[in-house]
Write a structure and sequence with these properties.
The structure holds 4 protein chains of 4 kinds. Chain B is mainly alpha-helical. Chain B is 64% helix and 11% strand. Helix content of chain D is 75%, strand content 0%. Chain D is built from 4 helices and no strands. The chains are: A mainly alpha, B mainly alpha, C mainly alpha, D mainly alpha.
Chain lengths: 249, 169, 118, 125
């Protein structure tokens, strides 16, 4: 079986190497991507979407399908970890508990956490909201927002975090973020444009088509942010407690 | 009350970070501050006096404490840098662990004291178990500075008690 | 002045490489965590120096702030994970509660406020 | 004139970081290394950032002021986070009973120096 795997891998590698010969050279100024696509994006990006950050425009508008399925991949990761690790209460009793001894020791970490966490959350929302102007966007902001909850779970304990943010709510957010992304695309479809053609939002939001694309980018960034932060929390809940949801690290 | 203060502080942070003052971004800022306030309004000022005036007094006293503390931090850094660069570091060092019971009541005051101990010369807080501090001291003299002479609390602990619990300095 | 900033940045990088020795050599895991923390904090300074040389601080500062936050969380998480691994399992923990949970110190002072002078 | 201040701040921050690194490399055990890392890191980062803030504020404008405020936010964050991280690390090391270096001799009645070493005999893990 192992030998078969090796053979298949070797064949795949050979095919890829053969295909790589035909790729244009790195940073070749005469390759199709450099002669047509990049200049077009750079010249028309701001005019079409009123968004100065070209990276955001390419990520969330020109190749929005790709980003949507990236969000779906993250969503699938959370589901798989949930399926593999999460235990039902009946299975739980058979397991040996490993409870860390921590009562009365967390004073310093709690003091730092209560000051840092709110600032961190507003910073995360700023990163999501200002993806149009500075580096940032849904993925980065979502990671920081999720990390703030992980800090809460580390400095207090996992049970405290779960009491504030129930597992059901987290899973609702996991699905809701992807739904928001796809829903924006579906609304555009319903308005008679392409799927994820944000200009279709112009009639609903009451703005020009260019501004509608800018707002559409913001909406899908928010969707990605919700997905990423809730997926991080879901992963942490399951991984830190081994699926029991009682004691974290 | 704590929710209102948290909202104002969060909105100030948003303004500083955003630096854009058009209607769209300000609305976004209001929404974000509201969301953060809803999620964690009980965190930022937990364990403090609930009255606005009392909070102002605490902040004012804390600033005076910071002035005193910064000088201690400079001394600490000169001390540790000299120790690191001196050729006979192992002769000067005398590491040992000190424990003492604190007089501070609130968790936040203990947090401030623990971090101040970590920042000042020759001592690092290892652990706070209930109300006992375990401190690692790198020289014999730094342990003496920490504990203070006689029975009463050390100088730093009196400062922290004055800031947060209104004791005499 | 730019020359000065560049040289400071390069010197910081060299010192971070020296700290990397502590990460590679150990001897314990917690030593490595300490070395990584030191390097992480200095990376924030390095990012801002690059930003100033590039003339786009307002962009790099977001990256630096995010890096500082994530570095802090990483350190805490690694330390907590290491701490949990070194604690006894649940069955032993019951015994440990009867044993003196306070680590004995130089003079193990009784209740009351007293430092243990050498 | 301002350049001189910037150079002074950054060079002193750099010297502190140099001392930190030397201490991190040559101190005998984990606990003393934490001393070097925890203290030197905080102030040297703050000094380096302060120098950068002053350098950045030389061409003054409203936006530059906002950016400088954001930079000082990082300084505050370092002063808050660095001691906390130090505390978390040394607490974890103490829990794990990392070997302990001391000059102190066992006392007269044969008792070993009761540092963290004795805890290891207490629990026998």
């Amino acid at each position: 079986m192992k030998r078969l795997t090796l053979v298949i891998l070797a064949i795949c590698a050979l095919i890829m190497l053969a295909a790589a010969v035909d790729l244009p050279n790195w940073a070749d100024p005469s390759s199709p991507a450099s002669t047509h696509l990049s200049p077009d994006f750079l010249e028309q990006g701001y005019g079409e979407t009123a968004t100065p950050n070209i990276v955001t425009v390419v990520l969330a508008d020109y190749r929005s399908y790709d980003t949507m399925f990236e969000a779906v991949v993250v969503f699938a990761a959370a589901l798989i970890v949930l399926v593999v690790l999460r235990r039902t209460p009946r299975q739980r009793s058979k397991m040996v508990q490993h409870r860390p001894v921590r009562e009365g020791r967390d004073t310093v970490l709690r003091g730092a956490a209560q000051l840092i966490i709110p600032v961190m959350q507003i910073f995360a929302l700023y990163v999501v909201g200002h993806g149009h102007y500075s580096p940032g966007g849904g993925f980065q902001g979502g990671v920081i927002f999720g990390a703030s909850f992980i800090l809460l779970a580390l400095c207090y304990n996992l049970q405290f975090t779960i009491d504030r943010f129930k597992e059901q709510a987290v899973l609702f957010c996991v699905a809701g973020g992807v739904l928001l992304y796809a829903g924006v695309g579906a609304i555009c479809l319903a308005m008679g444009w392409n799927f994820l053609g944000y200009a279709g939002l112009a009639g609903i939001l009451g703005v020009s088509e260019v501004m509608a694309r800018s707002h559409g980018i913001l909406l899908v960034e928010v969707g990605v942010g919700i997905t990423v932060f809730s997926v991080m929390m879901s992963l942490y809940y399951d991984l830190a407690s081994g699926g029991d949801l009682d004691e974290g690290l | 009350m704590s929710a209102i203060i948290t909202f104002c502080v969060m909105f100030a942070f948003w303004i500083v970070m955003s630096g854009k003052f058009d209607l769209f971004h300000l609305t976004m800022g209001l929404l974000s501050s509201g969301l953060v306030t809803w999620l964690s309004h009980d965190l930022l000022f937990s364990g403090h006096t609930k009255k606005f005036g009392g909070l102002m007094v605490e902040i004012g006293r804390f600033l005076r404490y910071v002035v005193w503390l910064s000088w201690q931090i400079v001394i600490a850094n000169i001390h540790i840098a000299g120790l690191a660069l001196s050729p006979q570091a192992r002769e000067i060092m005398d590491p040992h662990v000190v424990s003492f019971k604190t007089v501070l009541k609130t968790d936040f005051a203990r947090f401030v004291l623990a971090n101040s101990i970590t920042l000042t010369p020759g001592t690092v807080t290892i652990r706070i178990q209930d109300d006992t501090f375990y401190v690692h001291a790198i020289t014999a003299q730094s342990a003496g500075d920490l504990a203070g002479a006689g029975d009463g609390p050390g100088e730093m602990e009196r400062w922290v008690a004055w800031v947060f619990e209104g004791g005499s300095r | 002045m730019e020359q000065f900033l560049i040289s400071i940045g390069v010197a910081l990088l060299l010192l971070m490489l020296m700290s990397l020795f502590r990460v590679v050599a150990g001897p314990t895991v917690i030593d490595r965590i300490l070395g990584v923390n030191v390097i992480g904090i200095k990376t924030v300074v390095l990012i801002i120096i690059v930003g100033i040389l590039d003339g786009r601080v307002e962009m790099f500062i977001d990256i630096a702030l995010a890096y500082a936050l994530l570095n802090f969380i990483t350190t805490i998480a690694a330390a907590r994970f290491y701490q949990r691994q070194s604690q006894p399992a649940a069955a032993d923990a019951e015994e440990a509660k009867t044993a003196p949970s306070a680590p004995p110190t130089a003079e193990n002072p009784p209740a009351g406020k007293e430092g243990s002078h050498a | 004139m301002l350049n001189a201040v910037v150079i002074f701040l950054m060079v002193s921050g750099f010297m502190l970081f140099f001392a930190t690194t030397v201490g991190l490399l040559r101190f005998p055990d984990f606990y003393t290394r934490v001393h070097a890392a925890g203290k030197g890191d905080t102030l040297s980062t703050a000094l380096l950032l302060a120098g950068l803030i002053i350098y950045y504020l030389q061409d003054f404008s409203g936006e530059a002021l906002l950016t400088a405020v954001k930079l000082s936010l990082i300084v505050f964050f370092v002063f808050l986070a660095s001691p906390t991280a130090t505390h978390a690390i040394i607490d974890a090391g103490y829990e794990a009973k990392v070997p302990y270096w001391t000059k102190r001799k066992p006392s007269a009645d044969g008792e070993p120096y009761p540092g963290p070493e004795r805890r290891r005999e207490d629990r026998q893990i």
